[in-house]
Structures are given as C-alpha cells and as structure tokens.
Amino acid sequence: MVGFAIVAYAGDAKTALMKALDEARDGNFTKARSLVEESTQSINDAHNEQTKLLSKEAGGDDMDVTFIMVHGQDTLMTTMMLKDEVQYFIDEYERLDKIEKKLGIEKN
Description:
By secondary structure, this protein is mainly α. It has one domain (2-55, 62-103): Methane Monooxygenase Hydroxylase, Chain G, domain 1 (Up-down Bundle). Helices cover 84% and strands 0% of the residues. The protein is built from three helices and no strands. The longest helix has 37 residues, at 67-103. Its cofactor is Mg(2+). Homotrimer. It is found in: Cytoplasm. GO terms for molecular function: metal ion binding; transferase activity. One of its GO terms (cellular component) is cytoplasm.
C-alpha cells in the first residue's frame, strides 16, 4: 500500500504543479505560487512514505520490490523535477509580464 500512497501523493503534486503553470500563463502569479506550495506538501507526504520503506529496509526487513513501488519512485522523482521547472517558468512568465506591461503590449 505504501507504493500506492507514493503514487497518489506525487500525482496530487503533479496536478497542482500543472495548474500552477496554467495560472502563471494567465498572469495569476500569486495563485501559481500558492499551488506550488500546495504541491510541496504532497511531495513531502510522498517522501515520508518513501522514508518508511527505507527505514524498514535499513532495519533488516526483506523488501519485495513491486512494480507499483517502482512506479511510485518514478512518479515522485519526475514530479520533484517538474516542481523545479514550474518554479522557473513562473518566474519567466512574471518577468515577461512585467516587460510587456512596460512596453504597453496587451495580451490576447
């Protein structure tokens, strides 16, 4: 069940991050950053589940590696990388927004 929990938490984080990117594209930078923070909690929850597995293995428990556990790890790691990329794009969308406003360029 831990593998399912990791997938679920990482999936929630990914959803929040994709929404954050949409919000930033629309110029809603405060909302975008709020969604990134929301994703951080889900990533932390997934990481805590991962740590439970690591602790069990470090304690000598035999661990069966299942496909769902591998999928969970993959989902968590790619979501963590996505978070970094989304934060970068939010900053870039905001920078572009400021430049467009300075130049008097209206968005469609």
